[in-house]
Amino acid sequence: IVQTAKLGRSYRDGSNTIEALCDVDLTVRSGEFVSLAGPSGSGKSTLLNCIGGLDQPSSGSVSVGGVNLGDLNSSDLADLRLSRIGFVFQAFNLIPVLSALENVEFIMQLQGIHAEERHTRAEAMLEALGIGELATRRPGELSGGQQQRVAVARAIVSRPLLLLADEPSANLDSAATADLLNLLQQINTEQGMTIITATHDPAVMAFSRRRIQLKDGKIVSDTQAGDQ
Amino acid sequence: IVQTAKLGRSYRDGSNTIEALCDVDLTVRSGEFVSLAGPSGSGKSTLLNCIGGLDQPSSGSVSVGGVNLGDLNSSDLADLRLSRIGFVFQAFNLIPVLSALENVEFIMQLQGIHAEERHTRAEAMLEALGIGELATRRPGELSGGQQQRVAVARAIVSRPLLLLADEPSANLDSAATADLLNLLQQINTEQGMTIITATHDPAVMAFSRRRIQLKDGKIVSDTQAGDQ
Ligand SMILES: Nc1ncnc2c1ncn2[C@@H]1O[C@H](COP(=O)(O)OP(=O)(O)OP(=O)(O)O)[C@@H](O)[C@H]1O
Ligand SMILES: Nc1ncnc2c1ncn2[C@@H]1O[C@H](COP(=O)(O)OP(=O)(O)OP(=O)(O)O)[C@@H](O)[C@H]1O
Ligand SMILES: [Mg+2]
Ligand SMILES: [Mg+2]
Fold it and tell me: Given A38, A146, A172, which is nearest B200 (Cβ)?
């Protein structure tokens, strides 16, 4: 469960102040599957980064699982991210010197999971995303959409309570997108993983059950599937 | 005009050979606007990289403007790219320490164009892509879709004969995509710039007048708009 209160994030650009987020009040309940939609530059990535503790708000607060992120020191924040949050970055952020499999195992290693279990789970996750045969390749030896799927695998294999996925289908064709969404739906249903995804992709929006529209750093609408 | 003959590109992956491209015969005439479509991993980026001289084929040949790229030494190849080809990379590849404006001016500087003209043209191009006010920001201070548009601006501002655009709309919402396509259409019509774009985006495919479908490194169909 995620809760933000009057969340703001601004930047100084010379003498200007850019309000990337302004006065965002958001509550996401456990098990929800939510899309953040909105034009380029509207604040989707910034909001995900604040929710995931990767960025500090300029004003207001964020709580994840009842814990106010602003109360945590950086080491406790890192622990919380490690144990509870999976993040798919808009630019993937894979480790270039590790193989696809090692990239996916990496977080489980930090979580103290044994080598054999890590290996089994990582392989299964790559398989589920249609890239099982690419386990030994390094990111530079993969296509854009293959790298994207390694980034997704890495984020979900650690079974986080909360998945934050920034444009997870941007480099995927419709077939790979459908497979990805089916997998996310399955984990959402079976494990109760809460999913918040920033996206431009109508296919992703259609799968989520709630759509939050951003414009110029503000929430302008918040609709449930089935509503108008 | 682009011509490939029996173009092949393979990689060694341990004891396996991966055929990223196989036996590709392609002719694109001056002024055409072509989409390369196909699933993730089907060879779109590899084909663009071979056409643009960024990657060397394993077999077969590529000619651009009548010049066989395989005949050129690396310095002449670099000159040809600089003077004739614009490239939008799937991962943008912006220079992190330069501003958006400087990134766009960069190629014109290598082409020996004077500072004042560079500045004017770069500003106008950012403006045309809806990011004029972001001129002084560095890539790390921009959203994904804003970085994408800087990458497009950089590729087209040097008025290349041939634009190779790898997934130019992947991180753009529909409004920004429509603006981008209108701009590309305009340059295609007014300047006769040939455009070859790799894409998953139906909006981009709809704008191009010819669609080449790739699957497992091979061309499986080649249709003109207006055909079935
Ligand atoms: N260095 C490499 N070593 C081995 N295989 C490679 C290497 N680089 C690319 N490949 C493989 O070549 C194939 C074609 O890759 P390419 O990047 O051209 O695909 P693509 O059509 O652009 O895919 P996407 O839509 O995901 O961007 C892929 O299967 C990819 O894994
Ligand atoms: N370091 C920074 N300095 C100044 N402005 C910034 C900085 N980082 C981000 N911004 C601005 O904050 C705004 C929101 O950015 P954000 O990345 O959240 O947008 P987005 O909705 O994810 O866009 P996209 O769909 O293009 O990925 C943008 O206008 C961006 O230019
Ligand atoms: Mg973003
Ligand atoms: Mg590609």
Answer: A172
